[in-house]
Design goal:
By secondary structure, this protein is an alpha/beta fold. It has one domain: Carbamate kinase (3-Layer(aba) Sandwich), CATH 3.40.1160.10. The protein is built from eight helices and 16 strands. The strands form four sheets. Strands 5-10-2-1-13-15-16-14 form an eight-stranded mixed sheet, with helices on both faces. Strand 7 and strand 8 form a beta hairpin. Helix 2 crosses helix 3 and helix 6 runs antiparallel to helix 7. The longest helix is centred in the N-terminal third of the chain and has 24 residues. The chain is globular and about 55 Å long.
C-alpha cells in the first residue's frame, strides 16, 4: 500500500491527481489517499465572515487557530468541499473511492491539547479553547479491510480526541502516522511546490535528497507549512516507512513522478 497525501493549498491539480491515481490503481497499486483543506477552509471562512487566524508556536511552527466555530468551518471545507471533489474525481474514473474523516470508525485518535502556546506581539500566550491535537493511533485494521474489499479510502481531518471530540490534526503528520501503521514502504506528500526549497520561493533551489540523519537541518530550511511536511517525513521514517517523497501536485502524473523520485526524497 502507498499513502498519498494531497495538499489543501491553492494551485493543486486535483484532476491530475485523480487521473494518475486511477491509472495506478488499474495497474494494481493499492492507494490510501489523505488530504487537507487549508485553502478551502480559508475561502469558506471569509465567505462566512469569520476569517481564519494563524498562530505561531515558540519553536516557529504555524498552525490554524481552531476555536469551536473555526473547527466547524474546517469540517465543512474538508468534508463538504475537498473530500467529495476527490471522491467524485476518482469515481468518474472507475475507482470505487470511499470518503472518510479521521473521526469515522475512530480512524485517527489522539489527545486534544489542553493548552496551546503561541507567540503574539513578541510574547508567549496560552490558549485553552483550541481544538487541536496529534494523531497517536490509527485504525489500520479498518483501512486494510476497506482496501481488501476493493475500496480506495479518501481520508480528511478532523481526527477524534480520546474524549470523543473532533480535533484539528495536521494532515501531513496524520498521513505519516497512517503510512507507519500500515507498514507502507512509501509515503508521498504532494503539494503546490516541487519539494523542499533551499531558498523559498525559488523553485530552482529544490533539495533533491535528505538523509534521515539530516532531518533537523532540512527542517531549518523549511518555510511555513513545509515545516510540517518535513516533520511528517521524519516521523514516517522513524515509524518504519522506508521512503518519503515531497512532490509537486501541480503537474501531470504527480503520483508517478513522485514515485520516480521527482521532488525531495527522504530516506
Amino acid at each position: 500500500m502507498i499513502v498519498v497525501k494531497i495538499g489543501g493549498s491553492q494551485g493543486v491539480d486535483l484532476d491530475a491527481v485523480c487521473e494518475d491515481a486511477a491509472q495506478r490503481i488499474r495497474a494494481g497499486d493499492r492507494l490510501i489517499i489523505v488530504h487537507g483543506g487549508s485553502h478551502a477552509t480559508d475561502t469558506l471562512a471569509e465567505q462566512l465572515g469569520y476569517p481564519s487566524k494563524v498562530i505561531t508556536s515558540p519553536s516557529g511552527h504555524t498552525s490554524r487557530r481552531t476555536d469551536r466555530r473555526t473547527l466547524g468551518i474546517f469540517q465543512m471545507a474538508c468534508r463538504g468541499v475537498m473530500n467529495p471533489a476527490l471522491v467524485e474525481g476518482l469515481q468518474r474514473r472507475g475507482v470505487n473511492a470511499l470518503g472518510l474523516s479521521g473521526m469515522d470508525g475512530r480512524l485517527w485518535v489522539g489527545e486534544r491539547k489542553s493548552a496551546v502556546r503561541a507567540v503574539e506581539n513578541g510574547r508567549t500566550i496560552i490558549i485553552r479553547d483550541d481544538y487541536t491535537g496529534t494523531v497517536e493511533t490509527v485504525n489500520a485494521e479498518l483501512l486494510r479491510m476497506l482496501v481488501g474489499a476493493g475500496y480506495t479510502p479518501v481520508i480528511s481531518p478532523p481526527g477524534l480526541s480520546t474524549g470523543s471530540e473532533p480535533i484539528n490534526v495536521d494532515a501531513d503528520r496524520a498521513a505519516a502516522r497512517t503510512a507507519a501503521a500500515l507498514g507502507c514502504e512509501c509515503l508521498l506528500l504532494l503539494s503546490n511546490v516541487p519539494g523542499l526549497l533551499r531558498d523559498y520561493p525559488d523553485e530552482s533551489t529544490i533539495v533533491t535528497h535528505v538523509k534521515r540523519s539530516a532531518i533537523d537541518e532540512a527542517a531549518g530550511l523549511a518555510q511555513g507549512r513545509m515545516k510540517k511536511k518535513v516533520m511528517g517525513a521524519g516521523e514516517a521514517l522513524e515509524g518504519g516507512v522506508a521512503r518519503v517523497v515531497i512532490g509537486d501536485a501541480r503537474r501531470a502524473r504527480p503520483i508517478s513522478a513522485a514515485l520516480a523520485g521527482e521532488g525531495t526524497v527522504f530516506e
